[in-house]
Amino acid sequence: MEDLNEKQLEAVKQIDGPVLILAGPGAGKTKTMIERTAYILNQDGVLPENILLSTFTDKASNELISRISRKIKNNLDISQMYIGTIHSLCHRIIDENLEYSKLEKNYRIFDDLEQKFFIYSKLKEFEKVEGCKEFFRRNEAFTAWQKSGNLQKWVDRVNEERINNTKIYESSNIDIVFLRRVHERYLELLYEENAIDFSNLQYECYTILATNEEILKKYQEKIKYIMIDEYQDTNSIQEKIFFLIAGERKNICVVGDDDQGLYRFRGATVKNILNFQRNFKEGECKRIDLNINYRSNQDIIDFCNRWMDTLNWNNWRYEKNIVSGRKDKNSCLGVVKVADINEREWQKKIYNFITYLKNTKKIEDFNQIAFLFKTFLDGKVTRLEEYLEKKGIQIYSPRSGKYFEREEIRFVIGLFLCIFHRDKNYLSDLYYNECYNLAKKEIREDREIADYIIQIRKDIEKIIDGDEGLELGNFLSIFYEFFRFKSFQKYIDLSENHILKNRKTYNLGIFSQLLLKFDNFCKLKKLNKDNLLKSVDYFFHYHLQFLMLHKIKEYESKDLSPKGAVSFLTIHQSKGLEFPLVIVGSLDKKIERKASLERQLELELYQEYEPKNRIDEFDYFRLFYTAFSRAKNLLALGCVEGEYSPNRIFNKGYKDLSDVRSEEFYYKDLKFDKVEESNVKEIISFTSHVALYERCPILYKIFRGYEFTRESTFGEFVGTLLHETLEEINKKIKNSQLLDEEIIKNIYDKNYKNLLKKVDVIPDEDFIDYGFSKIMDYYENYKDIHSYIKDCEVKVSFIRDNYIIEGIADLVIERDGELEIIDFKTGKIGKNIEQYKEQLRIYTKLLSEKYNQKIKRAKLFYLTENNFNKIIEVDIGDEAVEETINRFDTVAQKIINNEIEVEKTFDKKCENCFLRNYCEKIL
User: Fold this and answer.
1) Which tens digits make up the pLDDT trace of 550-571?
2) 790: left (phi over 0), alpha (psi -120 to 50) or beta
3) Residues 6+ positions from 557 with CB-CB distance below 8 Å
């Protein structure tokens, strides 16, 4: 084990029964959870699938997976562990028991933006519900977008609170009655689309477990140890899921800090952590306090403690005694202020302060500094950011709401305006006019794109005039046409992986995602005489306007803080992070008292815990405690002082602080920690990473590195349809369920229908029928395979020193005591057969370890090939397997090292690639 203090070691070894770990800031919580997981895995008889570990973010779960993989003694397959965010865990449980869900295969999970657009698209349905007009008037929601956002918020709240909450079903409050009816209609519409949102994902998982005794028993027997991180930010339905799975065994360990509960606005309740021990008999639940802060110096810790002691909590928090565990002691002040009565002088003081630290080598990189704010909707924050940028300081601020202000986004919107505007009807909008003029200026220097736009405008006029044979591609396909032209190519830079140096490329990747969602939302495959004017008008008059109101985030770095830049973050965004120097602003912000109507409605809905008249001040103090406790070496409070600034709440601690220019603050004694580089292993998949990289490293960089997106092809659609139907058939055969041609046809048709809802393609009915014939051929003529099924869709992970490869083996059969792997392919035999063989060799190694029995044979089964070529046996001898592992190591290292070198030769696969012109330029 890593060096653990007494309490950390106690937490690691206390694996039986309920445990509450109160982990203060910088207390080594992550290290303790990793050591605890490794300790459990190294117990006799414990398998990865016996552990459920819930994290707050995907980034946190990736870090845990990476670090746990380095700790375990045995070569265990950690892909079997239930580890991830609560939403990803619910997703997995639903998928494993889909037949017991209201959802069907290929269901869609709406993110926040997609959910809002879905509600917007169905707004007329909700406006039919009695009480609609009065509800929107009372909630000051007047536009369609405001109404959609308002309904989204309350629908989610109802969903998260509806279990065992009689208030929702018995209330006579007219708003609650309205929301109950809206929620019922919303669910009907959602399931009609075979879709679900994040809050309903949790409820669906809970329902499967709570209403199916055998399924619940299966998970209670399988999952023997449960750990939940950031428990103070869980909600009531999440807690119910965890307790259901824990069952009578009660091996549930929760980790958190009630003083850092920030997400009440998302339905979280600090009640879960404050009341955790009350769920058990007295003395049954062990409480362990991790109170040694290894992050911050004692000055910062004392300031944080005094801040929390300012308020009389009246037993609504756990009392704590946080102390510093840092070996280096303070030799200068650890908490100061950066203040001035004049805003411009304040900006200068901040600039001089941070550049002095850099110039005197007190800090090595600006990424050692973070500014934290309550919100970016504050002119002082925006003006400070602009001031520092003008002075040459790079700012990393992905949630500042500046996405649509970036030059590359204005340019690409301007290109679409150059193509689609008619009679300048869109250009009356000031923003659109600026975008249009920017694009026009660039186009003057690029004859090729000018000619392209002239031609496409001529085509548009022909389509409007009624030319039925003429069509344009959808918005995403037009976007990818821009890659051909030098005026667009200057925004694409694949040379580095730096979030700021390559911000333009990252932002264009996000724009491609927005366009795909738009095309899917409008079901656009082609622009023609039936849809062109309507689609274009909606895109400019409504869709883009809604996106701007939504405040699209820019791409966020996988590193804690990118090199060369000062971070500007919201306090919520900084949760779980730490910085050598933290400057906290927003000291003028008052405690926000929610509008009486909104607060009344919340209290009607929620099974509230804390005193309703103190909720807002509790949340305020927790928010700034979280901000202050991010600092490692120096905490600075930034403020433009005035009559109401800082807020009088800060007076007690603020007025006694020395200013950074005061004689009491000794710069020469300042020492700052370096920013630790991320040591998280890359998680790589066979199909979306290795195969794509080997096809073309540049395409890999575009789609995986910068997260550009693309439409699914019809071939991919068919492949998914056949594969998922096979999976369902094999599972039914394994479980000895009845099958015949009619049942298989029903499965096939249902999968086809649901896949069409998810993937917008132009179907070829003849080929769909052909696909079904191949499914029946497998069922009727290959009983020597499916009569011996041992396992279907087996997850595997291949752990190496600096990467993890994940994959899924389609079928494992056991015949006469010997194991075979079958991997189904739906295309024709081609060049990529060697990649498929290598994939099977890796599976052979991993599954031999999983079953503790050597795999004897591995076969590729080409579903649509003729019988002569249908089954190909793969060499899985030790030498072939070892050679494959070595080659995978080489490819994975190239991916990790961002190597995109390709030969300056173009073969057949490059002919129709949208990157052809770009590659000719850079190679």
Assistant:
1) 889 988 877 668 899 999 999 9
2) alpha
3) 396, 398, 499
